[in-house]
Predict the 3D structure of the following.
Amino acid sequence: MTANPPRWDLSNVYPGLESAEFKAATAGHAEQVAELERFFDEHLDRLGPETPVGELAPLLGETIDRFNALFEQARTIGPYIHSFVATDSHNLLARRLDSEFEMVGARLHQLRTRLEALAGRLAPVLDEVIAANSSAGGHAFALQEAARQSKYLMPEALEGLAAELSLSSTNLWSNLQGVITSQLSAELQVGGEVRKLPLPALINLHSHPEEDVRRRAYEAELALLASAREPLAACMNGIKGAGVTLSRRRGREDALHAAIDRARIDRPTLDAMMAAMQDAFPTFRRYWHRKAERLGKERLAWWDIWAPAAESKKAYTFAEARDFILTHFGSFSPNLRGLAERAFDGGWIDAEQREGKRGGAFCMGVRAPKESRILCNFDGSLDQVSTLAHELGHAFHNECHYRAGKTTLQSITPMVLAETASIMCETIVMDAVLAETTDPAEQLNILETSLIGDAQVIVDITSRFIFEKEVFERRAGGELSADDLCDIMARAQAATYGDGVDGNHLHPYMWTWKPHYYSVDLPFYNFPYAFGLLFGTGLYAIYRQRGAAFVPDYIDLLASTGEGTAADLAARFGIDIRERRFWEDSLAVIGRKIDRYCAL
């Protein structure tokens, strides 16, 4: 069923971690960071609005060019190292190099902070400076955004201290969480055979057709996570405690404030979306009640949420998944199919499940060769086919930036728009599977797979948002125990899943293995997924109306996601994201799938 899922290949980037080419690249990058530090010291720190525009413009333009060169290098070296760390947490060389690169990254982060401060100082004359230099003019949005955000900076010395301390605090907490969860494994009997399964493989058994297997996998998962709860609680406290302190010292209203600004939306937009989502919870509970009926239960237990509607006759080899995705990507756009072919045939994908490899899935851009790399844990299920399409959507988004000649600074995409292409690609594939299937039982399974994903992104994401909000609020008053974190998680799940799931069988340890909680720079990396699903759903509805004429505008949107607010970019398609109506209309599309599911 899952014969020969591939491992990725990055040998076209560097020959190896110990190669002369890689060592030269990292040394050269560090030296260019040092050169930019000297450039700030000697030329930029003295600049202010009183400096003649004729002097400011070339200096700012040169600064932009230097930053783009450095980010080009960082977004080649960093993904290369991470490709080893993410697939083999036992690789001590990769982990050491990752730590060393993080030290240079902290210096680059501080330089970017200095650029923000410079843009803030130049705010009174920034428009004139931008108009007087082509490099600055090509990055007008980034510079103006930097000027706006500069008011949330601590004094330079404190920002520098925070960047340095991250190397021995928050970065290490994040790395520890990844190492711990990637090395957890348990023995489980499946199909008459006892196997030692890593945590990602246990999680994938959520969708096993046999309840006994699902239940035992769930119990083994909780036992594993409980065994690591104390160090993971320490990781959470370290990350969230630092986030609380930094938000306060930077003059933020709260931790959510920074997340909203980073997403390039505003609170009215977030409030409109979240309110529409919460109003839709009864619809999702109706779906779970119907599913419980099919399983012969009064309520779903947690281990039933991902259960297939019936034992599916269809399992995909990786080759079959490839062919199916290519066929239907081609019906949307030859460019999309071409990108996917390059990914499948060029060694861009690591799909094999194995111990030491991180769970879940992600896509990372690799700037120098203008490629991407995709990690997933392929098990032959339709869900994993959907996941693969989702991550290829991220790769296509990267491709749109590359083809449009966008620099790294022009390509920095807010998280809410980063999910646009992935949701579109996932929807293309799932709609195609449903359209091609005539067997009612298989139609039910396809709808089940789709609705499981929708429910996770709308309902479970809300539980994660509620959880994180309370953790931040309570962490401001002191450390939280593992019991506290489990209690907050369980209550958040009870508030969102409601009577759709048996309250005696929730997942209080969900906080332990979700990596999104463990980044001080990415608080609330949950609501962007909901935004992406609903925004992508709305765009797909427009595509269904306009057909092929939609695609060039869509590609242009993807190429421009680093150069506008979410509201301005959505307005290109007549979408007002501050109005509940748009979010309600997208949720209604999911509601119609639930109606169809309940009627089958």
